[in-house]
């Protein structure tokens, strides 16, 4: 005799199981979460893995949102280490681009705000100011004894405070 098969609705529900001190949740789309659960939602510290994109977030959760400090690694080589609020980069953090460049500064709702440091993949540092209508960049070090006067590629993408190449 065959064991009973789950109904179609049950097959679409996430599967919960305990693992060490955390709960492991396996979703029908292949995503997986391991960490704290409170009230049926991701709460506390945990790791979420997106099966389709290869993205991984490890850090603090509040009511199913990335909230607090954490690290989000993207499947294409980008990553962000810093503060999150309501699922978005929000607060101080470092954004690493796939080409090896990075930005250190403040973010609000996934946008760069105020001043920060952009370091290109070849090591040239720029102090970047997003406090005005358009981002401005000035070199703070020399690369191969040449002072560069132009902002790094992608800094001015036409949106005030937009994180260059974040999308």
From TrEMBL:
SMART domains with a match to the protein in the record: MORN
SUPFAM superfamilies noted in UniProt: Histone H3 K4-specific methyltransferase SET7/9 N-terminal domain (SSF82185)
Keyword tags: Repeat
PANTHER family named among the record's database cross-references: MORN REPEAT-CONTAINING PROTEIN 1, PHOSPHATIDYLINOSITOL-4-PHOSPHATE 5-KINASE RELATED
Record protein name field: MORN repeat-containing protein 5
Natural source organism: Neobodo designis
Organism phylogeny: Eukaryota, Discoba, Euglenozoa, Kinetoplastea, Metakinetoplastina
């Amino acid at each position: 005799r065959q064991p009973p098969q789950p109904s179609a609705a049950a097959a679409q529900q996430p599967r919960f199981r305990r693992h060490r001190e955390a709960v492991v949740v396996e979703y029908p789309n292949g995503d997986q979460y391991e960490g704290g659960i409170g009230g049926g939602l991701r709460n506390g510290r945990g790791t979420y893995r997106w099966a389709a994109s290869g993205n991984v977030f490890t850090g603090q959760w509040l009511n199913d949102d990335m909230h607090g400090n954490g690290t989000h690694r993207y499947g294409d080589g980008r990553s962000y280490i810093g503060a999150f609020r309501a699922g978005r980069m929000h607060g101080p953090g470092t954004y690493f681009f796939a080409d090896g460049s990075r930005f250190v500064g403040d973010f609000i709702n996934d946008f760069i705000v105020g001043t920060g440091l952009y370091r290109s993949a070849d090591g040239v540092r720029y102090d970047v100011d997003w406090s005005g209508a358009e981002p401005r960049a000035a070199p703070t070090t020399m690369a191969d004894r040449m002072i560069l006067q132009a902002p790094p590629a992608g800094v001015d993408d036409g949106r005030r405070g937009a994180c260059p190449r974040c999308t």
